């Protein structure tokens, strides 16, 4: 079915089904009516506009696109692998003025199998799907122009032709396998290279980790050394402390002894002073000794009218008036006079008493006695203290020994302690830093070592190499299997092509058959035993067409793919004998043979020998209502 | 007319033997490719083939194939 495709305006359907035993369908058309367009419609449907050699807009019917926006499509409906396939390829087009090409959308491929849509998301998936049904390269042996197939007789055949031939020889799976395994080997080589690079990095890392391990061991060793040094420094500090304590204690005793010496000397001085005081006091001893006598005398002398009393009374009696200006009472006067009369003159006792009293007053013997006692008491205290100090000094001397001053020793010990403490501090700080460093590095070492252990080993590389060897071996094996299969297939194709060629040629007595070289060059074997390339024979166009037809018939038959053979311009410039032979051969060329011809190629007489093989015959002609359009008309068959 | 499966298998056995490949590996490869050719889906074929070719080589020489034949 096609719609708005090239000369076919609107929708047209052509039934190309065949009846059993009637594989041939004939489609007749004058030149420029649409015969080749029908051929291209099938190519467009299966492989897209690129396969037709023209852009999609060139496939849009000119009349349709001048009228409205619309859609151009070709739908093929066929049986394949016992399933009903519907393949539709379409493009949307925009209305365009006469004489210009329309804008078209991207091509859209739709596939249904037994009525169920097949989801094909990408162009690649679509292409792969169609390729699985009939590879585009292989299609040239099923859809061909009778005149164009002479290319297979040219030397050298193009690479494209060679690949196509290999494909139809039924080695598609192996060709794919070869390509896929080549890719796998390539991937494996990359993976191996990556592993080798990784191993190189791994080795470098292993060296670095090993170095880190040694660094950690060095740190541990240094920490052990520091522990020893710290122990030694602590011992030194402790020893210094003990020495200092001991020295300080002794020094304190030395100081005490000095103090005791000073005290002793002071006591001696005081004793000396005391002695002087005693000596000085000796002159007062007499007073002290006579003091009791003086006191007695004083006491006795005081019993008489004291001198002062007499003097005062005498002074009062010298006037008639008292000192208060009142007249002295006669009785008082009498009493006073009696006192003065009672003891006229000074007695000896009184004199002595007065003297004693005066002496006592002057010498104060009580105070002297008290002082004497005090001096003597002091003397006792001093002498007692002196003994005590000397005892203390004796004790200290015993403890101190002969040492006089330990200040220098103490300073030296303090300096030593300071140095030891500084060393201890230094070692402690270094140890702390080393321990932190050790912790950090040990953690890092553990992590990196674990990572190294997790990474591949040499076994990974050996495994990958073994994998690559295995892949390479498979690739080589597939390649050789392809070669052998192709050789055998080529031999069979050559046998088939020879048979067909001998059936078709107008001079079967001249030839033995066809040979196919490794490069798929065709050679003709003559009866005379010579084998020459076809191109070297300089065959006529007709002969070339016969040879190529025999070749592709053989290929076609060998592939046994269930595809119709569609031949455009089937006869070309063949001579009558070739023409007759070829027409009679066409029913055998495939299970379904569609022949597109123009009337001058095949007459009714020409067709007659194969009439019994024809299922239907169609006429492709211009639409009487639209000279720019073509229509199909069945002229024979159901 | 196309080369029969028996012919292909025969070529495979010969090639496998010559290249010290385990018996049946080439058939596995061929069948894997045949499956995707007809399904039109070739996206996962590489992974499938990688598994097949990974251990394709015989470890014990051709005696392994002989043992397999036996």
Walk me through the structure.
The complex is a heterodimer of chains A (638) and B (70). By secondary structure, chain A is of the alpha/beta class. In chain A, 62% of the residues lie in helices and 14% in strands. Chain A has 16 helices and 15 strands. Chain A has helices spanning 35-47, 49-52, 62-67, 123-133, 136-139, 159-302, 307-317, 330-342, 348-363, 365-400, 407-454, 458-504, 534-537, 541-559, 576-589, 604-607; strands spanning 2-5, 8-12, 24-29, 70-80, 83-93, 108-113, 116-117, 143-145, 511-516, 522-526, 531-533, 565-568, 593-597, 614-623, 626-636. Chain A has a six-stranded antiparallel beta sheet. Chain A has a six-stranded mixed beta sheet with strand order 8-12-13-3-14-15, with helices on both faces. The longest helix of chain A has 144 residues, at 159-302. Chain A is rod-shaped, with a radius of gyration of 75 Å. Chain A starts with a strand and ends with a strand. The relative contact order of chain A is 0.14. With 70 residues, chain B is mainly alpha-helical. Chain B has one domain. Chain B is 66% helix and 0% strand. Chain B is built from four helices and no strands. Chain B has helices spanning 5-18, 25-39, 45-54, 63-69. In chain B, helix 2 packs antiparallel against helix 3. The model of chain B has no long low-confidence stretch (mean pLDDT 78). Chains A and B meet through helix 4, helix 6, helix 12 and helix 14 of A and helix 1, helix 2 and helix 3 of B.
